[in-house]
Amino acid sequence: MSNLDRAPVPALCGGRGFVVAEPVRELLSPRRVKLGESTEVRRLLPNLGRRMVGAWAFVDHYGPDDIADEPGMQVPPHPHIGLQTVSWLHEGEVLHRDSTGSLQTIRPRELGLMTSGRAIAHSEESPKSHARFLHGAQLWVALPDGDRHVEPHFEHHSVLPTVTAPGLTATVILGDLDGSRSPGTVYTPIVGADLALTRGADVRLPLEPDFEYAVLSMSGEASVDGVPVLPGSMLYLGCGRTELPLRAGSDAGLMLLGGEPFAEELVMWWNFVARTNEEIVQARSDWMNGDSFGEVKGYDGGPLAAPELPPGPLKKRGRVR
Fold it and tell me: Is the dihedral of CA 276, 280, 286, 291 positive or negative?
């Protein structure tokens, strides 16, 4: 759950001034980024046009990649502050290690949820013996100010609640959907759900009008509120919706992301979510000096070095550029 750019661009986001208070259909295209040695991701958030959806602040989609003869995902130990990471797979496995001592293999449609709080380090890798294909999403949730210094911890939930309708099975990853609640710990009103649609499905999913939403396409042919959404793209939907029309031209996989608009303004750089430039500078220094983040034991290799900071101070701004 990492940003491995060696020249990361500061993302200055948060605040409600740029939240779209009415339903919209804003299609977001990804940019391609290398993650580790052999995995390329499609980055949807932060985006040139939009930086957050509720508390969701970072979204990568990757695969399906044929890694039968490849090492697969190999992400060395790296740090995080001020956020939660969400690992979500459709195919393959990812082995998670972190500085609290967690060691967990995450499999398809199981929730790996890491709360960095004040500071944590972790690594991610495909097991040595792994499935042929790797396909999933990596996401961050920004922590509100009152909870961003909590003790770091990791959760793994192999059984999650579902919401069903003809042609639809929705697995509730985080938060609440249509009366079903995920066991994952959350700190803001939020929802994340995996939507599995069968060919020919034509359904309406109930939504909270006070939430803003987006839908990420993972696979297949589907339209969201009449807009075709291709795999690896995301449709921002704004607020003010009570339901969402979904249609599938083939078996399809989507992710629904939503939540109450995030009121606080943030500074996000590399793998840190903070409130000020000074906090980012201190976190980078702590990581490079071996302070605060602890040790990830068992990974075969050294930790990532932090990139150089940009020349000027990072300043908080709005949610869109």
Answer: positive
Please report the sign of the dihedral spanned by the C-alpha atoms of residue 153, residue 158, residue 164, residue 167: positive
Q: How far apart are CA 291 and CA 149, in angstroms?
A: 16
Q: For residue 61, tell me if it sits in a domain.
A: yes
Q: How many CB atoms are located within 10 Å of the residue 178 CB? A: 15
Give residue 61's identity as a one-letter amino acid code: H
Buried b vs exposed e over 5-38: b needs ≥16 C-beta within 10 Å? Answer: eeebebbbbbbeebbbeebeeeebebeebebbee
* pTM of model > 0.90: yes
Tell me how far the alpha carbon of residue 84 is from its chain's centroid: 9
Residue 106, CA atoms < 13 Å, CB-side half-sphere = 32
Q: Is the peptide bond before 46 cis (omega within 30 degrees of 0)?
A: yes
pLDDT beyond 60 at 317: no
The per-residue pLDDT for 14 is 66
Cβ burial of 155 (10 Å; 0-12, 13-18, 19+) is middle
Residue 112 domain-assigned (yes or no): yes
Sequence ranges of the binding site for Fe cation: 78, 80, 122, 124
Total count of domains within the chain: 1
User: Which stretch of 36-50, 173-187, 295-309 has the lowest confidence by average pLDDT?
Assistant: 36-50
Q: Give domain status of residue 292, yes or no.
A: no
**Residue 176 pLDDT level (bands cut at 50, 70, 90):** very high
For position 86, which CATH number holds? 2.60.120.10
Question: Would you list which residues are annotated within the binding site?
Answer: 78, 80, 122, 124
The string of pLDDT tens digits covering residues 200-223 is 999 999 999 999 999 999 999 999
The C-alpha atoms of residue 99 and residue 120 are separated, in whole angstroms, by: 6
Distance (Å, whole) CA 184 – CA 113: 7
Q: How many distinct helices (H) and strands (E) make up the chain?
A: 1, 26
